Amino acid sequence: MKKISCNIVRDILPLYLDDVVCDETREMVEEHLQSCAACRAEASSMKKDVVLPASKSQRFAEAKVMKNIKHRIFRKKVIVCAITVAVVLAAGVGGYAFMMLSKTMIPYEKSGVSISAVTLAEDSQNAYLYFSIDASDAAGTVCHDPVTVQTEDGEKTVVILYAYSTPWSRYIESRFGNNSDGESGMTYQMLGNADEIDEVYYGEFEPASEFYEDPAGFLEKAELIWSGKE
Fold it and tell me: Which runs of consecutive H residues, i.e. helices, occur in 102-199?
């Protein structure tokens, strides 16, 4: 077979690599490549650079696969975000409920509760009972309306109250003071007409339904802090 030059072979190489030459030309190029290191290197370099274009159907299939992958990734992200938000909200609501609604009765000796009989300027004929509280960690008070109770000394009209704290009032508010001026006391609250109340007790009386059924039983566990006989 007639020997061909390297320039001709290199011109034919792209067609040879694409396998679009006739058998005779292929044999001629392969014979030349066996004896020419420079052309073999050129052919090897061309093979590395050749990128066959994907067919339209292949590109469509690849695009569909990528779309499905992106959709699954997006869906997972949405699910993860929704779960994260739900967990954060649940933790926030649970934390708020614990900090603000978890009540603990303050012992009487730490409550700073005091009872006072006060005569109002507009009603000088009657004295009214008020109570105040001076516990720095108090979140609030619970006070029952005057109720008539049968005791060993006969019927008496009594009031029962207690102060309570919450984790928020104990660990947060107590560190900064309950009032803007830094004082800890609470506003006076009226219990009722002093002439109509015989005794005031300090103690927990929850639940209220059981207190109505047996108020005397709750008073036995409460502490007497004021009596009209004093």
Answer: 108-111, 167-168, 174-176
Q: How many whole angstroms separate alpha carbon 12 and alpha carbon 53?
A: 20
| pTM of the complete model | 0.56
- Cβ–Cβ under 8 Å, residues 16 and 25: yes
Spatial distance between the Cα atoms of 156 and 56, rounded to a whole number of angstroms: 97
Q: How far apart are CA 139 and CA 221, in angstroms?
A: 23
- pLDDT tens track for 201-230: 999 887 777 887 888 888 888 999 999 865
CA-closest candidate to residue 118, choices 175, 55, 188: 188
Bond before 207 cis per omega within 30 degrees: yes
Give Cβ neighbours of residue 134 (< 8 Å, ≥ 6 apart).
Answer: 111, 112, 113, 114, 184, 185, 186
Which segments in the chain show pLDDT lower than 50? 179-185
* One-letter amino acid of 149: V
**For residue 143, what is the enclosing H or E element?**
strand 140-143
Q: Which two tokens stand for residue 50?
A: 């050749």
State how far the Cα of 115 lies from the Cα of 145, in Å rounded to an integer: 15
